[in-house]
Specification:
This protein has 13 helices and 14 strands. The protein is of the alpha/beta class. The chain folds into three domains: about 60 residues, no CATH class; about 220 residues, Rossmann fold (3-Layer(aba) Sandwich), CATH 3.40.50; about 80 residues, Phenylalanyl-tRNA Synthetase, Chain B, domain 1. The strands form three sheets. The protein has a nine-stranded mixed beta sheet with strand order 5-4-6-7-3-8-9-10-11. A three-stranded antiparallel beta sheet has the order 12-14-13. It has a two-stranded antiparallel ribbon with strand order 1-2. A hairpin with a 7-residue loop joins strand 8 and strand 9. The longest helix is centred in the N-terminal third of the chain and has 19 residues. It starts with a helix and ends in a 5-residue tail after the last strand.
Length: about 375
């Protein structure tokens, strides 16, 4: 009898185990709808969308209208028209001056000083100089930049490999130094797993893909130093050692070349998804060992200022630092005759330009009455 008394309550709980769960789920759904401030029809449409997304064969697609109605923040510049967030490769022959070139980039980004007339966006830099020691780095940085140092530029001479601890090391560095914009890896060979001398397209794509995913996740730039091959190539960038998987996965590439190894002159060819293709002619300052710009093959085309963005920037010339409201209210504030949905679509497309050129952050969210816009002036140096 005593056993029955102790086991009966457990049996009852077991028999009724499904009921509390159902009740809890119902309450969760009901509470979720109440907290979301959606109508029943809107909430049910959201649930159907979630069921669709969870289907095994789901393929995410967006319509042309959805593209125009969504603000997408593009890649942010590290150095305007040269280097953006993402993964980039700098390739060149051994001992051509690649390490001096990336040291120059590191210094200019960390100090915010323009490089060859290109505007550098100041931020912290982590330079993995994996073929150097600290004495050699000291001598190089002293000869190039003298005694004016900065804590925004930090070096490491040893690191783990991609897929074998490097991710965790980079995560640690980003959490410790929150202002990091640029990580330089010198060289790729030092952080990729040594399997054989002949890497496949897949392995090349995977190693750059892993670094690119990390860069995209944290909205930073990773600049990877690599070597060129000795064999002749039809296309300039086919000289990069390895398969086309390296170039195919990277967001952009720099190729540093000399006609003669003893020459102080070099050509820097640039291709990328976010910056224009360019060819720069450089000459090395033999005293300081820095690369100086001799000339550009052609001047870059500059898009003229957008009148709409100019008008919005004028709103923030006084004490205004933030504005919130509807598209209709913003049009009234500017005194413009335009359909509200046309305004929001233009701003959705120009969100990155508004941020980079005018330091105004634009966000929009859908509410029951339409769109709620927010414009906020920010300090890009932070």
């Amino acid at each position: 009898m005593e056993n029955k008394k102790t086991t009966a309550p457990n049996a009852s709980v077991g028999a009724d185990a499904g009921q509390p769960s159902v009740k809890t789920n119902t309450e969760i759904v009901s509470n979720s709808r109440a907290q979301s401030n959606l109508s029943e029809d809107e909430f049910m449409a959201m649930c159907r969308k979630m069921d669709e997304i969870n289907a095994p064969g789901y393929l995410h697609m967006v319509s042309h209208n959805e593209l125009l109605d969504t603000p997408y923040v593009g890649k942010q510049a590290i150095i305007d028209d040269l280097l953006y967030t993402g993964a980039y490769i700098l390739a060149g022959a051994p001992k051509i001056g690649k390490s001096f070139f990336v040291a120059q980039i590191a210094y200019h980004v960390s100090t915010g000083q323009p490089l060859w007339g290109y505007n550098a966006r100041q931020g912290d830099v982590r330079y993995l100089a994996l073929e150097d020691d600290e004495k050699r780095l000291q001598d190089r940085m002293y000869r190039m930049f003298g005694v004016n140092g900065t804590d925004k530029l930090r070096f490491a001479t040893a690191a783990k490999q991609v897929g074998n601890g490097l991710d965790e090391q980079l995560e640690f560095a980003l959490h410790k130094y929150l202002g990091t914009k640029l990580i330089i890896i010198d060289t790729l060979q030092k952080v990729r797993e040594a399997t054989s001398d002949n890497y496949s397209y897949t392995s090349d794509y995977q190693v750059i893909g892993a670094l690119k995913n990390f860069a995209d996740k944290h909205s930073i730039c990773i600049l990877i130093v690599h070597h060129t091959r000795k064999q002749p190539a039809g296309d300039t960038f086919e000289k990069i050692s390895g398969t086309t998987g390296l170039l195919g996965c990277a967001d952009g590439s720099f190729l540093l070349e000399k006609e003669k190894r003893t020459s102080s002159k070099a050509t820097l060819s640039i291709v990328g998804r976010n910056q224009p293709d360019q060819q720069l002619y450089l000459v090395k300052n033999q005293e300081r060992l820095i690369w100086e710009l001799e000339r550009k093959e052609n001047e870059l085309w500059k898009e003229p200022p957008d009148p709409l963005l100019e008008e919005i920037s004028h709103l923030f010339h006084g004490e205004l630092t933030e504005w919130k409201g509807s598209a209709t209210e913003l049009l009234a504030l500017m005194g413009k005759d335009m359909q509200p949905n046309i305004l929001t679509r233009k701003l959705n497309v120009k969100v990155s330009e508004l941020l980079s050129e005018y330091q105004i952050q634009y966000t929009a969210k859908r509410i029951r009455e339409g769109s709620s816009l927010c414009l906020k002036r920010i300090d890009q140096s932070v």
